[in-house]
Amino acid sequence: MQLTRFTDIGLRVLMYLTALAPGQLATIPEIAERFEISRNHLVKVVHFMAQQGWLATSRGKGGGLALAKPPEHFRLGEVVRTLEGAMDLIDCAEPPCALRQGCRLKGVLDVALAAFFQSLDGHTLRDIVASPTGEAIIRLHRGAI
Prior knowledge:
The protein is mainly alpha-helical.
């Protein structure tokens, strides 16, 4: 299983924003440069996360983005589920699988996927930015990575 680039970027943005001081904002160009990612793709991810209520954004000179709530309020399972959208590890319908009527594979994979998300639900954004990740994020803010 592999998460989409959309989810990867979304998680990185959330992690990056944890290191902002109160009242400080990050900008799209800044984040795109730090992570060496497409500005256009980043705009789509940030827009989606703002729609979810995860980011506080402001436009214009002096504008930018920040977390809309403290990092401990972001459950990773919920974040990944939302960023990934409806997720099936396999699709037995398209193209139609000849084993579909008597196969147990999809059920086993569905149980495994549920366990994956249950494990992620045990962690918050605050947990994953603990040391040494937090220090790496601070260096990234300074442009030292």
